[in-house]
Amino acid sequence: MLTSRPGPSTGGTDAPAPDADGYGAPRRLWRALDRNRPPGVDAADRSWRSPLRGPWLTAVYGSVLLVALPLVIVTGLLDYAAYGPRFDQAFPSNVGWLRLPTFDWPTRPSWLFRVTQGLHVTLGIVLIPVVLGKLWSVIPKLFNWPPARSLAQVLERLTLLLLVGGILFQIATGLLNIQYAYLFGFDFYTAHYFGAWIFTGAFVAHVVLKLPRLITALRSRPLGAELRTPRAATRPEPPDPDKLVAARPGPATVSRRGAVGLVGGGALLLAALTVGQSLDGPLRRTALLLPRGRQPGPGPNGFPVNRTIAAAGVRPEQTGPGWRLMLRGSGRTVTLDRPGLLAMAQHTAALPISCVEGWSTRQTWTGVRLRDLAALVGVADPAAARVSSLERAGLFRTAVLAPNQVLDPDSLLALRVNGVDLSPDHGYPARVIVPALPGVHCTKWVAEIDFQGRADD
């Protein structure tokens, strides 16, 4: 284990002297860097005076991230899988060897995507104070000189750079995306996907390198005793090899209990402002970060809308009495108007609809089962179904449904919601609703459904 540079006396105890073998190969390089210190490095080193910084506090924040970040990573990858990469409709579609194993996204439980996407977005927001607290606790490491004393430390610093840069990039672009503020000038989906893999690689490497020290630091001080220690009794930790402890600590202005409480309180506040967007009921009023508003309007159609009919460029005359639905399959074509669809057997299901930005809501939908529409064109065992909208532009004007999504008994071409006709913004005259399907693939203003049979696969 490496030792730190000698430091001034703190509390009557000198920091340990550097070991003669403290440098790894190439030793001459690290020693030359140490002898030629850039201007301001020593001043910066002396400026970090908080007695709170040290391995224990860093490990407390780090242990929270160690548990929570894998959930963010896994739910993000699951959400990507929900978009159907095997149909080339997940974004980005061309990811090379980073492509996930292909499988048909399940329709049960019907709230699956609501949970994965809601957890991904909400937990990502809630962790922001913990990430900032962790960065504050380790910021003196950015001013260590020399920046490394061995090739192993070079690897550690590289993973730290990718880790910090990666998580800040993911947080910043994610927050802008859920607020529909595309200020970054590049495709969010592509950047977020590849950025996630870079961050994940750095996170795994960092955990492998630092987990032993995290465990040692947590064991160095009892959590309960430390959280009961008041500000007046707060003392610096002993000097550590990573130089997290201040060389000349000043008096404590807050206890470690206060620092942990500040971060925890910030996380709870963000949770209160966010979690309601994934829930129905009174908590939706507290979701001040909900991008599409907490009160989308009165009546049965009064729930969030991601893309309005005006934004989609669908003209009112396209959805009027002249609207027709075209069904294709097995070389056959069937055309239906809305009265014809209403004359078919109707099915009602209470299903959530969930958006990639994190909001979701559960409503009661009524319409014709997709498998009944497939049977009209002679496709009893569909391999897929391509649904096309009246919308003529946009990434999600078409969506391909997997066989299990077409055949699920609650998969509908919905005509009504909560007992009334769909509003124009919610997809009138007809829209798709499928259990556990991402909202953007629940196509609105449906114009055509092409059912592909197994023999056509």
From TrEMBL:
Any one GO MF term held by the record is:
oxidoreductase activity
Membrane-crossing segments per the record: 56-78, 118-139, 160-182, 188-209
Q: Where is the Oxidoreductase molybdopterin-binding domain?
A: 320-453
Write the record's keywords in alphabetical order, separated by commas.
Answer: Membrane, Transmembrane, Transmembrane helix
Q: Where is this region: Disordered?
A: 1-25, 227-249
Where is this chain compositionally biased, Low complexity type? 11-25
Q: Where does this protein have coiled-coil stretches?
A: none
Its domain of life? Bacteria
What Pfam families does the record point to?
A: Oxidored_molyb (PF00174)
Q: Which SUPFAM superfamilies match?
A: Oxidoreductase molybdopterin-binding domain
Q: What is the protein's given name?
A: Oxidoreductase molybdopterin binding domain-containing protein
The species is: Micromonospora cremea
